[in-house]
Automatic annotation (TrEMBL), chain A:
Subcellular location: Nucleus, Nucleolus
Compositional bias ranges of the Acidic residues kind: 547-559, 572-585, 593-619
Protein name: Protein SDA1
Coiled-coil parts of chain: none
Function: Required for 60S pre-ribosomal subunits export to the cytoplasm.
Domain (SDA1 C-terminal) ranges: 719-766
From TrEMBL, chain B:
Subunit composition and interactions: Component of the RIX1 complex, composed of IPI1, RIX1/IPI2 and IPI3 in a 1:2:2 stoichiometry. The complex interacts (via RIX1) with MDN1 (via its hexameric AAA ATPase ring) and the pre-60S ribosome particles.
Biased composition annotated in UniProt, kind: Basic residues: 17-26
A Pfam entry, by short name: Ipi1_N
A single GO cellular-component term on record: nucleus
Signal peptide (residue range): none
Chain ranges of the Pre-rRNA-processing protein Ipi1 N-terminal domain: 126-202
Subcellular location: Nucleus
SUPFAM superfamilies: ARM repeat
Name the record gives this protein: Pre-rRNA-processing protein
Lineage: Eukaryota, Fungi, Dikarya, Ascomycota, Saccharomycotina
InterPro entries: ARM-like, ARM-type_fold, Ipi1_N
Organism: Zygosaccharomyces mellis
Length: 768, 316
């Protein structure tokens, strides 16, 4: 009976049937087979009509009705095809062939449907991602070539967008969780192949790579290698997309992730907890807190996962052969005859890229520096960017002769009395940036010339010159004039001279910024020697291990509250998070466990060992040395004992006393990877503001302060004009003869005084 | 007193302008000048009248959204067939007509059937030429989701079998056989949940099946001309039917599938013997059982079931 009932409501349209088949594939097998046969016959008709040709020309005729049906059926079959895998083995293959071989005859709607169906089949795991890729890539290429794109009704642009979107979605879905390296590799191979072809189809490879890089889906050196190949491509468009990738892909990616993290609203966990304490405790509120805690934990977990799963290597760091790449880029795109095909902005980005690579990896591309000379004139467009990339490309391993030419040119062109102050400032600032990276790039005479500008009237120029002076005070003060050297540097020099030491001039080829030892350790050793008796075991002393409270308080935020009852005893286990407090966790553990026990060290093995060390150390320190040189001091101190935070604090204090703080600053500056900010080169300029700008600033200051302004012309409640207001507007001649007006003149002095007094009090009351 | 300037301006708009003799009427201030100057002279397109009966212009009416218009167009063409049967018109006409087999409207389908009949009566070669397309559309109609169209597909098939049965059987015997079986609800893997057909439908389907099998499998119909001598000389003469080597699929576009079953089937239905083999591969016992049910019920259905059964037994 039930069967009869079902067949009575046999569906008359495909969507209905689809629903039924999905619910119960077994009993609708027959209907499915019928529809599949229908699909097959439609497919055959389509193939036939392709031959006869008559139909394909008039697309809006009978074919279009068929097309509608056909696309409907394709959608139907691909929806239910996972229910009948045996019957539809050839279906995906057919779709693939249809769209690959006959895409010229297929109308757009059908193509779209086939593509979405293929995506669906991929999602249902009927076809593999590789198969889908092999379908999409040729199509993408086919529709980005001129011939196909220009034909009528091809909808090339829409199709390209569709395919591109699908490709990204596919790769994204395949790479969530763990990376699908096999798929990535095959896709990257396809990208490489695309780039090998001479025409501009490679643009898709770069687009895809860039997008995937931006989303953090691809972050390996292979994808960087794709972009390397793109950047070296002959085609301007592709080359530029490759170059732009290296210049701002990482920034893009970071901003992308920031956006993602910003979008989640911050939960005020503390607030909820507090409210729960005060308000009545209901189940709903309790659940609210529980949920909040859960989401918080999840978020924290996600954050850490993201941090682990995705390594933020900048693209330039992942280059396999930076030297070769930089050389090729320079010789192919900038230096040769080919350079003409790039316009100025593109050339500048090329310069930026090359100089960034040279700076980061300390490469040697000697032609670059003479190449810059051509563009180093104040009238050159965007010259600050060029100056910035000049500075960026310098590092201490470049022969000073090459750099000196460039510096000389900048000094000649930019820094003279005859130019505007901004120009001079830009020149001086860029020379400073260059010298920061390669101190030998300037000779003594030129430097002393340039420092003369510190007394310039223009603020920017003076600042730039002073910054140059302060730089050389640190790097090699002997190159400066005597009066410029400053107290510390000249005292050091004098002392060195007195002791007959050779002052340490910067040498070519010497790498700076490497960490050797701890600055000022000899001072500490000295100090320890002097005060050795006062504090015996300073290592084991708790007080020395205490760090500022701020750091400690971080730990409790994401963990739940724990009730500690006063009577019971607890085994205290240290969290891993606690151990982050200090640099050496081993020490910390023993120490942390002791926090409430007063120096009860008897059962700790570690401390025994330390005691022995201490004894050794004490023996060492018995033999006093009047002065220590840093190396021996370092060896002695660092090898025998572990420096406590208190030690570091003391060290810091001693160093400031000595006036050797400058060394800290120098270390930080040695990094070549810091970007030179082209906008900052000009220095601070303050033009006189126009009236509008001044007004604007004034208005900015008045924001949110309306209640302090005048109430003139403002009404509290909306109303029409009052009689009083109307009276004010009346014609003067009409009012002059009124009694009420004339009477005022005839008022006695006393009355008039009264009225005035009233008026004043009224005025005073107005505000309240 | 003297009015202010503003008030004068106000009244000016409402005063009547005096008309003067010999002077043109002043134009309103908001009049739009529509005159224009052009360098070329344009002549209206000439309409060359009704005397040229151009039927091809009516072809597009076959796709008209109104079913009545489609039906009437088909009927006019049917009247014209006599005059245009030997013209170039026929191919475009039929290629446009054939898709109407799956038309939703019953009237249109019956008009189309009449048209086919008419064409077949005058010149069955036309139908033979387009046989391939016809078969495809019949197939499509057989599997259509709307049962009325399914039902009519059998009628179309019987109509076509009348004029180009030989050709049809050669091209798609197996496919059509399967289609008819599934229409009747007799297919192999069909369980007992066969859709109940009413008697009229069953009669039509069974008659069509009878025709198909008779055309396909009875040697007597074809072998009348096939003598031993002809068989040997035949291959050097012009073949009787168009595209004799079509089954080799040398010039057709086809999707390459790993194991396309129809390539084999098409090859095997070229002659009557092969077709008989195809028929025997079917589940004949089931068919006989079904036929027995109809025979028991009697009436028209019983009659045609009986004749079908006889035919089947004769073939075995």
């Amino acid at each position: 009976m039930a069967r009869k009932g079902r067949s009575a409501i046999l569906p008359t349209n495909i969507v209905l049937l689809q629903n039924l088949v999905k619910r119960d594939p077994g009993s609708y097998h027959e209907e499915f087979l019928q529809q599949y046969a229908h699909y097959e016959s439609l497919r055959d008709i389509f193939m036939l009509s392709g031959i006869t040709g008559g139909e394909s020309t008039d697309k809006d005729g009978a074919i279009s009705r068929n097309v509608e049906q056909f696309s409907e059926l394709i959608g139907f079959v691909s929806q239910v095809c996972s229910c009948f895998p045996k019957e539809t083995t050839s279906f995906p293959e057919e779709l693939k062939q249809l769209i690959l071989n006959h895409h010229k005859q297929i109308p757009f709607e059908l193509k779209e449907r086939i593509l979405t169906s293929l995506m669906m089949l991929r999602n249902k795991a009927v076809i593999t991602a590789e198969q889908l890729l092999q379908t999409m890539f040729p199509l993408l290429i086919a529709y980005s070539t001129q011939g196909n794109a220009l034909s009528v009704n091809s909808h090339a642009k829409e199709l390209r967008q569709l395919i591109y979107k699908n490709l990204i979605a596919l790769l994204k879905s395949c790479n969530t969780g763990s990376k699908n390296q096999k798929l990535n590799r095959s896709t990257q191979a396809l990208c490489f192949n695309l780039l090998d072809e001479p025409d501009s189809q490679g643009i898709w490879a770069t687009k895809l790579t860039r997008e995937l890089w931006r989303r953090g889906i691809w972050d390996d050196s292979r994808s960087v290698e794709i972009m390397v190949q793109a950047a070296l491509h002959e085609d301007v468009k592709i080359a530029m997309s490759g170059v732009m990738f290296f210049l701002d892909a990482d920034k893009e990616r970071e901003s992308n992730f920031e956006e993602n993290s910003d979008s989640e609203e911050e939960l005020d966990l503390e607030g909820i907890r507090h409210r729960l304490k005060i308000n009545k405790k209901t189940g709903r509120r309790g659940n609210k807190l529980k949920n909040a805690v859960k989401t918080m934990k999840k978020k924290n977990k996600e954050d850490t996962q993201q941090g682990q799963g995705y390594l933020n290597f900048s693209a330039i760091h992942l280059l396999r052969d930076p030297q070769g790449f930089a050389e090729n880029l320079f010789s192919r795109h900038l230096n040769g005859k080919n350079a003409n095909k790039f316009d100025m902005e593109q050339k500048i980005s090329l310069m930026q890229l090359i100089s960034r690579m040279v700076g980061t990896h300390k490469l040697i591309v000697l032609g670059l520096y003479t190449f810059f000379l051509k563009y180093l004139t104040p009238k050159q467009r965007n010259v600050t960017q060029i100056l910035a990339s000049c500075a960026q490309s310098c590092h201490e391993l470049v022969p000073p002769e090459n750099l000196q030419v460039m510096v000389r040119k900048i000094a000649d062109e930019f820094v003279s009395e005859g130019v505007a102050s901004e120009v001079a400032a830009a020149g001086l600032n860029s020379i400073r940036e260059i010298c920061l990276r390669a101190p030998l790039a300037i000779d003594e005479i030129l430097l002393q010339d340039l420092t003369e500008y510190k007394s310039s009237k223009a603020k920017g120029v003076a600042m730039a010159a002073k910054s140059l002076v302060s730089l050389y005070r640190e790097v090699s003060p002997e190159m400066l004039k005597k009066k410029d050297r400053g107290k510390n540097a000249s005292m050091e020099l004098q002392e060195a001279k007195r002791e007959g030491k050779i002052t340490r001039k910067p040498q070519f080829g010497e790498e700076r910024g490497t960490v050797e030892g701890i600055q000022g350790i000899e001072l500490l050793a000295q100090w320890k020697n002097d005060h050795g008796d006062e504090e015996q075991d300073d290592e084991n002393n708790d007080r020395n291990w205490e760090v500022d409270d701020e750091e400690d308080s971080n730990d409790d935020i994401d963990s739940d509250w724990v009730n500690v009852e006063s009577d019971r005893e607890y085994d205290v286990e240290m969290d891993s998070s606690d151990s982050e407090r200090e640099d050496d966790d081993e020490k910390k553990k023993t120490d942390g466990a002791e926090e409430d026990s007063d120096l009860d060290l008897s059962d700790k093995e570690d401390n025994d060992a330390e005691r022995e060390q201490d004894q050794d150390q004490d023996q060492d320190q018995v033999a006093p040395k009047s002065t220590m040189d840093p190396e021996t001091a370092f060896r002695e101190l660092a090898s025998t004992r572990i420096l406590t935070p208190a030690d570091f604090a003391k060290l810091q204090q001693l160093r400031t006393e000595e006036g050797v703080q400058k060394l800290m600053g120098l270390q930080k500056r040695g990094q070549n990877e810091e970007l030179v900010d082209s906008a900052g080169l000009i220095g601070p300029i303050k033009y006189k503001r126009s009236r509008e700008e001044r007004l604007q600033r004034v208005m900015e200051g008045r924001e949110d302060r309306e209640k302090f302004g005048s109430r003139k012309g403002k009404r509290n409640t909306p109303h029409s004009t009052t009689n009083r207001e109307k009276g004010r507007k009346k014609n003067f001649m009409m009012m002059i003869h009124k009694k009420s007006v004339q009477g005022k003149r005839k008022m006695s002095l006393k009355d008039r005084q009264k009225v005035l007094r009233n008026h004043i009090t009224n005025q005073k009351k107005k505000g309240f | 007193m003297s009015k202010s300037r503003k008030q004068k301006q106000k009244t000016q708009d409402f005063q009547k302008k005096k008309l003067k003799v010999g002077k043109p009427k002043a134009k309103a201030s908001n009049v739009t000048d529509t005159s224009f100057v052009s360098r070329t002279i344009s002549v209206r397109n000439q309409h060359l009248g009704e005397h040229d009966e151009d039927f091809s212009k009516r072809l597009s009416l076959l796709k008209h959204h109104n079913s009545t218009v489609r039906k009437e167009t088909l009927q006019t063409f049917q009247k014209m067939i006599q005059t245009i049967i030997h013209t170039r018109m026929m191919t475009p006409l039929l290629t446009q007509c054939i898709p109407l087999m799956c038309d939703e409207s019953r009237q249109v389908r019956s008009a189309l059937m009449d048209l086919f009949d008419e064409v077949g009566q005058y010149n069955d070669q036309v139908l033979k030429l387009l046989c391939k397309m016809l078969v495809l559309y019949v197939n499509m109609a057989m599997t259509h989701i709307t049962s009325a169209i399914q039902y009519d597909s059998a009628k179309f098939l019987s109509c076509l079998l009348r004029y180009c049965g030989d050709e049809i059987c050669r091209q798609a015997f197996a496919k059509l056989l399967m289609g008819l079986f599934s229409l009747l609800g007799w297919s192999k893997n069909k369980s007992q949940n066969a859709r109940k057909l009413n008697a009229n439908q069953a009669v039509a389907h069974m008659d069509t099946l009878y025709e198909l099998i008779r055309h396909g499998c009875q040697e007597s119909l074809q072998a009348d001309a096939d003598t031993e001598l002809q068989a040997s000389t035949n291959q050097y003469l012009i073949p009787e039917y168009p595209q004799p080597y079509e089954y080799l699929k040398l010039f057709t576009r086809q999707l390459q599938t790993r194991d396309s079953p129809f390539a084999v089937v098409d090859l095997s239905t070229q002659d009557a013997g092969a077709r008989q083999r195809v028929l025997k591969e079917q589940d004949l016992t089931n068919i006989h059982r079904q036929l027995d049910i109809y025979i028991k019920e009697g009436g028209n259905a019983g009659k045609s079931a009986n004749s079908l059964k006889k035919l089947l037994e004769e073939l075995q």
